[in-house]
Amino acid sequence: TKSIKLLAIIFILATGAIQAQTLKFGHINSTQLLTQMPETKMADSTLQKFGTTLEAQLKTMTNEYQSKVTEFRANEATMSEPIKEAKAKEINDLETRIQDFQESAQTSLQKKKEEIYTPIIKKAEDAIKGIAKEKGYSYIFDTSVGVVLYAQESDDVMPLVKAKLGLK
């Protein structure tokens, strides 16, 4: 029985060694891939237009605020106390609205970014996974994130993924 156990252990170790030799590794720079996809260029443009619209609204609000502050300072000495308090409250309310708008705009911009880039990222990931399955890769590492500090030589799958996505 000892010899059977010994043979079983040797078989398990040999099988593990054979499987380790058949692993196939690849790598890709996903950031570079995404920048080459035409969908990304359209998404960049859409996000930029959305941001420009928000910036224009913020600029309008800021100009109104600056105008009211300038007017208040210029006429403060001649204003009666109730008018001065009303104008000061109006300026403070506008300041609060501007701060609220800035926070809301930042949240909206982040949501818009996720909304338009998520399908693009998924398309790239699906293409990478497709190539991995088609070509028998065990692992494909993303070199754009810089997590892999050392790796033995592996295949750059960028040309394969670009071809699958129809990119030049």
Can you walk me through this structure?
The chain is built from five helices and three strands. It is mainly alpha-helical and 168 residues long.
Secondary structure: elements and pairs:
Elements: H1 2-21, E1 25-28, H2 30-36, H3 38-75, H4 81-135, E2 139-142, E3 155-156, H5 158-165
Parallel strand pairs: 1-2, 1-3
Order of the strands making up the biggest sheet: 2-1-3
Task: Supply Rg.
Answer: 30 Å
Helical proportion?
over 70%
Tally of separate helices: 5
Number of strands: 3
Oligomer: single chain
The N- and C-terminal alpha carbons lie at a distance of 62 Å
Order of helices and strands: HEHHHEEH
Overall geometry: elongated
Biggest β-sheet strands, sense, barrel = 3 strands, parallel
Strand content: 5-15%
What do the pLDDT scores average to? 86
pLDDT < 50 stretches:
none
> SS-based structural class?
mainly alpha
Short descriptors:
3-stranded parallel β-sheet, elongated, mainly alpha, 168 residues
In short:
The protein is mainly alpha-helical and 168 residues long. The chain is built from 5 helices and 3 strands, in the order αβαααββα. Strands 2-1-3 form a 3-stranded parallel β-sheet, with helices on one face.
